[in-house]
Amino acid sequence: VIYEGKERIMQDAEMIVETPMGHVANINNSTSKIFVTYRRANRKMSCNSLVVTDICLILTNKGEVAPQAFCTINKNLNKGMLGSDVYLCYKKSMDRANLISFKPSILYRYPMTDYNSFCFPNSVAMFCLPMGATIECWPKVASKPKPVFSTFVLTVADAAQKIYGSAITFYEEVLPDPSITNMEPLEIMDKKSEITDGENITETKPQVKMKIFKKFGVLKRLNLGQLEKLQYTDPETQSLNISKSICILSHWPFFDTFEKFLGFLHSLANGKPQNVPIEKYISYFLCDIPFPSPQRPRIFVQLSTVDRLILTQPEDLALPRSGASFRQLLMNLGPENCMLILLLILTEQKLLVHSLRPDVLTSVSEAIAMILFPFKWQCPYIPLCPLGLAEVLHAPLPFLIGVDSRFFDLYDPPSDVNCVNLDTNNIILCEDKRHLNIKLLPKKSSRILKNGLEVIYAKLNSLNRIQSSQREKSNEDFSADKEFQQKRKEQGLELEIQDSFLRFMASILKGYRSYLLPITKAPTVGTTDPTSLFNIQAFLRSRDKAHAKFYSMLVRTQMFIRFIEERSFVSDMDMAGLAFFDECTERIEEENVTFLELDESQHSERTVFIPPPDPGPNQQPVIYKTFKLNPDLMKPQKSLSLKNPALCAFGITPGSPMARRTKHEIKVAQRMARKQ
């Protein structure tokens, strides 16, 4: 949308100046003119790029908002004195080529056998390619799309343990047979005489090539209906491409490091000779790279002269480990929408989070689940839901589910679902939940939370501007030490955001322990009833009457009931986490108190340098045209190989035979000792 005389049209854009009937295409009611502009895609634009597929108008005086997955152009189309404000909305979808979808499956895995502490989940393939594996027909002039990084979370061992998946999805061209595709015209004509016996001898070269492909190539596996859907008719102007994914599974959410490593692996399949095989890099990374520890908190891995990785020791907190990015939560939703999300999740509403960025989707969904601490989400939770599990959206109970925004190109969400669009910072509440707004939250606690989030939001914007300028420099100019410092700053901001939400939860539950009822007999169905464990009515009376509606909804949730049960009985939940939260509720009135902060006392800048892997004796250069691996080359380096797989970055850090205390427990013990 452009205001004539006040703005300049973009260089590669065109303006709609006339209607089909020849009238002036001014969309404003007043004398000043407003026109709509558009840009057309280049012929060489990659398939699956985002393009505008739908537009609509909304009238604000009727309370209209942008439909699901639509973006609003914040320029009023009605500049007149009368009438409602009118805004243009547009929807972007992927420009999908003709394709056939299949159920994905595992082509290869390493190691081939499971670790005792790490069983291979059967559902990995479905989460690596949540929209399904596809064969797509593209114009040959189209450029290949860039690889897409995604993350997902799997729960195993009765939801007691999490596995974090990091995947990079890309396309490979399907060549029916190299010997066929590279044939000279004369050879094709010779072949033509063999396969066109009794048929029209005037067939063109593409038709002949298609017959060869259908007889000898991948197309022979497709039925007639699938071939018609692909519309693959000319091998000289069209190409077949199949989606693939490379994935790393870990008990640790080192998403940034894994993204760089997967991108590096994919870049090696470029048709050029590689002195070190891809297989060598994989076994080296999974088996030979040590896990960060207090003695070696920073691991620097040099993969090539340009590519490098860093691993830093995770913060030892009393809170559960997760793949959450609170920075992404705040940056994509802003302070007010973060508070609305908090209200929705605390009252156990149906929440559907969606984005076209799958890695952001998972990290934000994990953050939403984490801001509940000390509560734990008790209902269905799938941060990145594959298309094959979409029926869970019709479940008659609350859920927290993330989906790719392309889901809305195929299905409409149920009418009772609240949708959160991370790409447009838009939350659409279902009809019967429109009464839910942040004014329901306790006033003082929500004001402190909002002020804290706004301050951090400004810090994040400033940090992003600095990082953008640094990215413009070459990788060599950005030293490893600066990279570690940047990581430290990001960790600090993560804890600041988490601390703000923790402060809110501690303030609204302050004094809850006074209403726990004594246990008089062994647990039975009756004694685990919340009314026999917690004096709900007395607790509600102790809260401000202005917020009675919020508290009455909170105490009826499954997670509150579960929290009271875990607080009353010895449970599998981390008791250190509960004790930590209890201390937070006791200290909430202290001035300038910080519950979560980086522990600088134990911080060390000692860095372990890991050189690139050695190709080994007599290793010939290997050429990878596609990402196809040779199991015989998967051999860890004996010089660095660890006997205990749990010691590498791939496994779980080993436990001590003695009970291990968290840093918080150590601090509490030291504080108690000083008092004595």
UniProtKB/TrEMBL annotation:
<dbReference type="InterPro" id="IPR005113">
    <property type="entry name" value="uDENN_dom"/>
</dbReference>
<dbReference type="Pfam" id="PF02141">
    <property type="entry name" value="DENN"/>
</dbReference>
<dbReference type="GO" id="GO:0032483">
    <property type="term" value="P:regulation of Rab protein signal transduction"/>
</dbReference>
<protein>
    <recommendedName>
        <fullName>UDENN domain-containing protein</fullName>
    </recommendedName>
</protein>
<dbReference type="Pfam" id="PF03455">
    <property type="entry name" value="dDENN"/>
</dbReference>
<feature type="domain" description="MABP">
    <location>
        <begin position="1"/>
        <end position="94"/>
    </location>
</feature>
<dbReference type="InterPro" id="IPR005112">
    <property type="entry name" value="dDENN_dom"/>
</dbReference>
<keyword id="KW-0344">Guanine-nucleotide releasing factor</keyword>
<dbReference type="Pfam" id="PF03456">
    <property type="entry name" value="uDENN"/>
</dbReference>
<dbReference type="InterPro" id="IPR051696">
    <property type="entry name" value="DENN_Domain_GEFs"/>
</dbReference>
<dbReference type="GO" id="GO:0031410">
    <property type="term" value="C:cytoplasmic vesicle"/>
</dbReference>
<dbReference type="InterPro" id="IPR023341">
    <property type="entry name" value="MABP"/>
</dbReference>
<dbReference type="InterPro" id="IPR037516">
    <property type="entry name" value="Tripartite_DENN"/>
</dbReference>
<dbReference type="GO" id="GO:0005085">
    <property type="term" value="F:guanyl-nucleotide exchange factor activity"/>
</dbReference>
<dbReference type="InterPro" id="IPR043153">
    <property type="entry name" value="DENN_C"/>
</dbReference>
<feature type="domain" description="UDENN">
    <location>
        <begin position="86"/>
        <end position="575"/>
    </location>
</feature>
<dbReference type="InterPro" id="IPR001194">
    <property type="entry name" value="cDENN_dom"/>
</dbReference>
